């Protein structure tokens, strides 16, 4: 959590690059932000940007109901091949 | 010049209200908004106080009316330039309609362009809590609900590419994992994707903005990456063969210019036949560039893209009579024969056995003519890329010793610096500032050595380069059996001299814009026009030639080839961030040997991880990458037009209403609260977005880790009533919006505890105090006393150190999951910039001054210019609307008074 802050632009620019990595992790089942962060070795606040950006543009969605620790889990949305 | 009665600047609630009321009175109003939608800050709120009505429900009818009112013309995504007093007391202004690159009439607001866009940028409409795309609709309730493509200009990589390849575009597609689309984007410019992915000298990388951070992106190698992936899967280009259009074009020469022109024309349905004098197609790509740099099978794959479209290539088919070709039915002929001739050494003995030209040598090697240099000593003369290719090829053919002799210094070598470095690493010796004087005869008509003279720089010639001159008495000899001259190349145009005008150096004289040469049907492109250049420039010329030939055959004006936006200023790109994280360099890309023995490719392919990492470093200089995904995704033909440009309108108006609103206090100016450093310290505006139905997250989450917060604190008066930040004023609505948010949070998160740290609650309006009491009754805890400092714990929780006045006045610490800073407002200096003559007075707090605030609210220091809403001082929504109403009355009185004859 206390990882040094990077510039906002730098973090959000990376969403397309991180997308495949995050979706790869979600292939094994829904994960919370801290779980995704641990899996890809990135700070949780950066993962929030990527997950929420991916949620906004239809790559993943939240599973109903937060965990006991207060985190939502996110699952990949299967897309029809173009 | 267009006339209106009133110009209203800013379409927030104050501006919209002013415009609508003036329109209702019958005045013709021009309402100008710099953002892509009207609505200002209000439309982004969750609800309004004290009624908790939906902000959108109140705003959107006014937003729609401001677009549809018969007397109101609304221009969004537009900016007002200087407003000056014109004749007869009226005002003149320039309004710039920034290009949306989307047709406002035909855009349906479907958002498919946004979903497809490959560039992510911070979303200012969500207080930077999430990203939007470069192609975007401002927000779901935007009016007009039309997309905008944010373009700051051409990205330097794309702008500088002589081949017209959208480098930023394919980099952007690669980082999104869209490799085939990236390949197809390069194909839009040229069929030579594999070739340019290996043998281009990458001027794009020289211009890459990242170059001033830790080094440029590996843009060329990324192109090779997508070419390798494509050719692993497909034999051809992977596109549909176009319907023939019934026209025929002949192309003489099959180098990069000819192949690119053929490709472009064939894609438009032209029947193209190419004529090649050599036994194999490809020009220098196939017959000069060594396989260790550019394997022949890659060139063949690129050429197969062209033939897949039906282009016919005749080899060993030299053409001398261009008129005959034309008479055979080829409506246009393109000459792209390159520079196949070598410049002779021009020194005594250059006819001896063992003296070769670089071009002929490389060609013989590529054609497998069995040249063996085993144990030979070779001298290569020249400092260009052909000289480097020649020297490295000689090493691979077994030469015991290879020496490059160049008459200038290393830094003046025309060869690409990487080529020169690699040549040295492969065991080639360089002798700089030396020139040949004579080839030495071994007495049997063969070469035994080269006599050279040391050269010294003398005065600069017409080209600006110094002209080296021999140093008297400095001659020396280099023993060798083979001498290869690579000192220049020239076109072979003698055969065409009757039909085409040539320059003194043998190149063809053409119109530089249209590339027409001699007859209107005869075009020329590539090195035969420019002299020896490089693949990328020749490719670009081929593209231009195809464009012009197509337009000439269709009877259109020969223009419209270069449609680039001006290149972005790299300093401005870099200034978008205060700091950059330095990237770890990619692993070395080449395997070089000091004694190479074969022609295996020396450059390694990129792994997918490397490609992602490399592409992920792109700074998106131009914002939009021109990847074309939006164009492909848009269901409306020609709706997206990347050729659109800004338009400047001249308008004349009788009066002006300044409704530019306010700015929010930048909370990082209170570093003791940690905004911008602690991830779970947010502003009140950000909380409003989290509470809005169109929120950026799925619910209220803390940005640090996505946790649902249970303990939320508010710090009121952040940046208001605070002399330490230069703002002694109360911002008037922070208390109330905080109380509103308190209630909404408790509704959304029933288990959350909300604590508000305040100096005193200011709730003076109708039902405001009742609203405050209601929040307390719901369970919000109000603690009187200022917060001194916030610190962050390892888990992201926050510790507030505050004064608790009502419980003894001691310093207390409390821990929270999330802290909201109720930031105040500040004046918007945009208002003053509207008047370049500098006569719009501001008050001591920098708000637009109302010269007679009590008796004539809205009047400014300039007769005929009025202010509405929060541009003159902090106001909540209701007060902004009221103020706009009074301003409208002032404007109407002014306009009516102006009609009365003096």
Protein architecture, described:
The complex is a heterodimer of chains A (82) and B (902). Chain A contains 4 helices and 3 strands; from the N terminus they run ααβααββ. Chain A is mostly helical. Chain A has helices spanning 8-13, 15-26, 33-40, 44-56, and strands at residues 31-32, 60-62, 73-76. Chain A has a 3-stranded antiparallel β-sheet with strand order 1-3-2. The model of chain A has no long low-confidence stretch (mean pLDDT 93). Chain B is of the alpha/beta class. Chain B has 26 helices and 40 strands. In chain B, strands 1, 2, 5, 6, 7, 29 and 40 form a 7-stranded mixed β-sheet that branches. The model of chain B has no long low-confidence stretch (mean pLDDT 95). Classes of the chains: A mainly alpha (82), B alpha/beta (902). Chains A and B meet through α1, α2, α3 and α4 of A and β8 and α20 of B.
What would the keywords be for this entry?
heterodimer; A: 82 residues; Arc Repressor Mutant, subunit A; three-stranded antiparallel β-sheet; 4 helices; B: 902 residues; alpha/beta; seven-stranded mixed β-sheet; six-stranded mixed β-sheet; 27% helix
Write a short abstract of this structure.
Chain A is mostly helical. Chain A is built from four helices and three strands, in the order ααβααββ.
- Tell me the name of the CATH homologous superfamily of chain A: Winged helix-like DNA-binding domain superfamily/Winged helix DNA-binding domain
Number of helices of chain A: 4
Number of helices of chain B: 26
Query: Pairing-aware structural class of the strands and helices of chain B?
Result: alpha/beta
Number of strands of chain A: 3
Distance between the termini of chain A: 38 Å
Tally of individual domains of chain A = 1
CATH architecture of chain A: Orthogonal Bundle
Would you tell me the overall average pLDDT of chain B?
95
Q: Walk across the major sheet of chain A and give the strand order.
A: 1-3-2
């Amino acid at each position: 959590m206390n990882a040094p802050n990077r510039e906002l632009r730098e973090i959000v620019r990376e969403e397309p690059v991180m997308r495949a990595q995050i979706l790869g992790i979600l292939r094994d089942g829904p994960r919370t932000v801290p779980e995704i962060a641990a899996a890809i070795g990135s700070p949780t606040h950066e993962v929030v940007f990527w997950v929420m950006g991916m949620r906004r543009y239809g790559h993943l969605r939240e599973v109903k109901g937060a965990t006991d620790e207060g985190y939502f889990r996110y699952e990949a949305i299967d897309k029809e091949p173009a | 010049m267009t006339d209106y009665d009133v110009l209203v600047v800013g379409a927030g609630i104050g501006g919209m209200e002013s415009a609508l009321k003036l329109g209702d009175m019958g005045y013709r109003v021009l309402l100008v908004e710099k953002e892509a939608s009207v609505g200002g800050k209000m439309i982004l709120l969750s609800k309004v106080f004290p009624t908790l009505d939906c902000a959108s429900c109140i705003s959107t009818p006014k937003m729609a009316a401001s677009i549809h009112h018969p007397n109101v013309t609304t221009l969004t995504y537009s900016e007002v330039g200087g407003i000056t007093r014109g004749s007869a007391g009226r005002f003149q202004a320039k309004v710039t309609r920034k290009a949306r690159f989307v047709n406002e009439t035909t855009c349906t607001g479907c958002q498919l362009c946004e979903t497809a866009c490959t560039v992510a940028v911070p979303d200012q409409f969500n207080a930077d809590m999430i990203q939007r795309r470069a192609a975007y609709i401002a927000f779901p309730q935007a009016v007009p609900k039309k997309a905008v493509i944010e373009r700051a200009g051409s990205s330097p990589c794309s702008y500088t590419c002589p081949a017209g390849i959208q480098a930023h575009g394919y980099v952007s597609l690669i980082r999104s994992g869209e490799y085939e689309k990236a390949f197809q984007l390069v194909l839009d410019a040229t069929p030579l994707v594999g070739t340019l992915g290996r043998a281009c000298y990458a001027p794009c990388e020289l211009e890459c903005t990242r170059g001033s951070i830790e080094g440029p992106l590996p843009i060329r190698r990324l192109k090779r990456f997508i070419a390798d992936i494509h050719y692993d899967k497909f034999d051809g280009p992977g596109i549909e063969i176009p319907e023939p259009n019934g026209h025929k074009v002949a192309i003489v020469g099959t180098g990069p210019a000819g192949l690119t022109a053929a490709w472009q024309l064939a894609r438009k349905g032209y029947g193209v036949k190419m004529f090649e004098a050599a036994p194999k197609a490809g020009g220098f790509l196939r017959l000069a560039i060594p396989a260790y740099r550019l394997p022949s099978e890659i060139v063949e794959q690129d050429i197969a893209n062209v033939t897949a479209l039906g282009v016919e290539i005749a080899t060993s088919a030299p053409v001398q009579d261009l008129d005959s070709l034309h008479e055979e039915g080829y409506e246009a002929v393109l000459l792209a024969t390159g520079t196949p001739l070598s410049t002779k050494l021009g020194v005594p003995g250059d006819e001896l056995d063992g003296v070769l030209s670089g071009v002929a040598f490389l060609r013989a090697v590529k054609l497998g003519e069995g040249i063996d240099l085993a144990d030979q000593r070779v001298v290569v003369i020249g400092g260009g890329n052909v000289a480097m290719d020649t020297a490295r090829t000689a090493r691979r053919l077994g030469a015991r010793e290879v020496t490059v002799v160049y008459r200038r210094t290393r830094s003046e070598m025309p060869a690409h610096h990487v080529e020169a470095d690699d040549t040295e690493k492969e065991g080639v010796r360089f002798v700089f500032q030396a020139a040949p004087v004579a080839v030495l005869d071994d007495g049997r008509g063969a070469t035994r050595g080269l006599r050279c003279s040391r050269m010294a720089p003398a005065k600069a010639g017409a080209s600006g380069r110094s002209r080296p001159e021999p140093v008297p008495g400095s001659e020396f000899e280099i023993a060798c059996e083979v001498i290869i001259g690579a000192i220049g190349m020239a076109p072979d145009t003698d055969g065409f001299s009757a039909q085409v005008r040539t320059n003194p150096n043998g190149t063809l004289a053409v119109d530089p814009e249209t590339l027409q040469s001699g007859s209107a049907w005869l075009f020329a492109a590539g090195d035969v026009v420019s002299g020896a250049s490089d693949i990328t420039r020749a490719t670009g010329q081929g593209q231009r030639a195809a464009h012009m030939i197509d337009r000439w055959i269709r009877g259109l004006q020969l223009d419209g080839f270069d449609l680039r936006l001006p290149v972005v200023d790299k300093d401005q790109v870099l200034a978008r961030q205060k700091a950059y994280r330095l990237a770890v360099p990619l692993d070395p890309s080449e395997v070089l040997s000091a004694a190479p023995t074969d022609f295996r490719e020396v450059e390694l392919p990129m792994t997918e991880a490397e490609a992602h990492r490399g592409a992920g470093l792109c700074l998106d200089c131009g914002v939009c990458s021109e990847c074309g995904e939006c164009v492909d995704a848009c269901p409306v033909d020609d709706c997206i037009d990347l050729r659109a440009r800004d338009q400047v309108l001249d308008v004349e108006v009788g009066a002006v209403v300044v409704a530019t609103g306010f700015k929010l206090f930048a909370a990082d100016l209170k570093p003791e609260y940690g905004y911008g450093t602690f991830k779970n310290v947010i502003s009140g505006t950000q909380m409003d977005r989290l509470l809005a139905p169109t929120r950026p997250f799925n619910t209220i989450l803390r940005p640090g880790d996505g946790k649902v917060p249970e303990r939320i604190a508010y710090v009121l008066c952040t940046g208001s009533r605070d002399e330490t930040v230069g703002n002694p004023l109360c911002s008037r609505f922070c208390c109330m919006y905080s109380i509103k948010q308190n209630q909404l949070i408790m509704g959304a998160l029933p288990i959350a505890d909300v604590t508000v740290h305040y100096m005193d609650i200011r709730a003076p309006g109708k039902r405001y105090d009742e609203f405050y009491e209601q929040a307390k009754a719901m369970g919000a805890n109000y603690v009187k006393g200022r917060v001194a400092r916030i610190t962050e714990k390892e888990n992201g929780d926050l510790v507030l150190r505050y004064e608790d006045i009502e419980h003894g006045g001691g310093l207390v610490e409390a821990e929270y999951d999330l802290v909201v800073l109720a930031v105040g407002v500040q004046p918007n200096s945009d208002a003053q910039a509207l008047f370049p003559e500098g006569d719009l007075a501001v008050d001591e707090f920098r708000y637009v001054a109302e010269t007679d605030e009590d008796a004539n609210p809205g009047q400014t220091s300039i007769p005929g210019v009025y202010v509405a809403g929060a541009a003159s001082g902090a106001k909540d929504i209701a007060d902004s609307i009221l103020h706009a109403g009074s301003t409208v009355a002032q404007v109407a009185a002014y306009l009516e008074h102006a009609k009365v004859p003096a």
